[in-house]
Amino acid sequence: MPKKRYIIILLIFLVNLCHAQEKPYNVLMILIDDLRPSLGAFGDDVAISPNIDEWAEEATVFERAYSNQAVCVASRYNLLLGSRSTSTGLYDFGRAFREFYPDAITLPGLFKENGYYTAAIGKVFHVGHNTYNDEKSWSVPHWHDKIIEYVNPEHTTETREEALFSNKSWAYANKLEKGSAWEKLDVEDEAYADGRVAKEAVNRLSELKDNHTPFFLAVGFARPHLPFTVPKKYWDLYEPKNLPIPSNQKNPENAPGLAVKRDGEIAQYAEIPLAKQSDPFPEELTRTLIHGYYAGVSYVDVQIGKVLKQLKDSGLDKNTIVILWGDHGYLLGEMGMWTKHVNYEIANRIPLIISHPDLKQRRHTQELIETVDLYPTLAELCDIKIPQLQQTLDGISYADFMKGDTESVRETVYHCFPRDGKLGRAIRNKDFRLIAWQSIDGDDQPIYELYEYKDGLVETKNIWRIDHPEFIKLKKILDNQPKPIAMRPESKPKN
Q: Strand 215-221's sheet: what is its strand order?
């Protein structure tokens, strides 16, 4: 054989050998309940979050990421199905998606079908309120822990929220007393669920270190979800007088009544006065709640730091894509509102950070992105082909954007929220948000809201008028969206 030809064959063999030895990327998905972008990495000067901030130094930080619905059960379906709520009819608790989409392939299910070990630790699918985990998505049983939890020895009776998150009936739960909105005891991290979730995730990564099977590991943390039950040392990180108190605690001017909220989730806790008793909250209560929220942020930051450290110490970081995702935003008294369940900015803007082992650059982007986009993005980054799906795939892949091969993907994002028999559908571009409230079948005249964000992220006045140029532009986009699917009927309780 001629020497030149021999060298060519040898080079081809070596190239093929290198390709054969390439390992598939692992995926570590970190989910955080009720976390708005209150992190140093997103410019929050109050938040003490050094572990996430340091990791974000070599990641893509999406500063304009949005949920598709500001409630945890729907937003997690959006993530794990790649489908907007309006494409599935799954807007509320108590709807098992497999009753309506028995052959749906979830995001972890897609990886499982492609030879991955898939596992869930902590809160991934919403479990509670007659809603359950999806066993088909995982290679091993879900490692579940509590969301509502108190460790004070004086706490001896079950509370409403504890019962609901244990999948006990609403009728039973409504007979119970309310629990406290906070707890700050001198206890170790593992006294609460997030500490135990972090410990299990560390152990699982240690086990996976020498496993040759690629993995998709989803790790879900509960805080800063209410109640703000966090070890005292995290409360002690913050000086109460230095915490940010919202300057505007009034509903937006001209906002329709069904678009705003006051009680709801926050009122399920003992210290919270109802609207008729106090509106807005007294300043001391407002400051305590904000204090508890930030304590929860710092607590979960330390737990995530433990997981990221184990990933690095094991060497798995060299071949693992890591995603940090908040399920929706969170209101801390802005406009007189608390928690989520509305279509406004702070309730829908989420933290999203993605690190890729082969894209080691610091990058902050203002690119608009939706939760549903993570499904096709992760599939493409891991070179997994998405088959024909039973559910609608609404997401768009950002893989090329992350690689720097394209400058922009979306000009608008879309989200919704149902209330009082109507559905509020929203379109957000970089400067404005249009919301249309209408029955799902669309046989009534819409009620519109239009907001501009040049002066900040808190809505102050509904500026809608029929001849406003932005209304005309965004209405056209909204009208071209697929017709929303009606609310699915509730599933029968398993218990």
A: 117-122, 215-221, 26-32, 320-326, 349-355, 60-66, 363-370
**351 near 326, Cβ under 8 Å?**
yes
Candidate list 18, 19, 126, 144, residue with the active-site label: 126
3-class DSSP string for 344-392: CHHHHEEEEEEEECCECCCEEEEEEEEHHHHHHHHHHHCCCCCCCCCCC
Q: Are the beta carbons of 66 and 371 closer than 8 angstroms? A: yes
Question: Tens digit of pLDDT for each residue in 98-154?
Answer: 999 999 999 999 999 999 999 999 999 999 999 999 999 999 999 999 999 999 999
Q: Give the CA distances from residue 453 to residues 152, 323, 426, 428, 464, in Å, rounded to whole numbers and listed in that order.
A: 43, 28, 15, 10, 14
Bridge-based pairing state of the strands 422-428 and 413-419:
antiparallel
Beta strand 349-355 pairing with 320-326:
antiparallel
**CB of 124 within 8 A of CB of 33?**
no
Cα distance between residue 217 and residue 268, in whole Å? 33
Q: Which of 18, 72, 212, 341 is labelled catalytic?
A: 72
* Residue at 443: amino acid letter: D
CB of 477 within 8 A of CB of 79?
no
Question: Would residue 126 show up in a list of annotated catalytic residues for this protein?
Answer: yes
0.90 surpassed by pTM: yes
Name the nearest CA neighbour of 447 among 469, 420, 477. 420
C-alpha 317/C-alpha 134 separation (Å) is 28
Q: Which domains does the chain carry?
A: 25-411 (3.40.720.10)
How large is the average pLDDT for residues 279-294?
96
Q: Is 142 left (phi over 0), alpha (psi -120 to 50) or beta?
A: beta
Answer whether 343's CB lies under 8 Å from 426's CB: yes
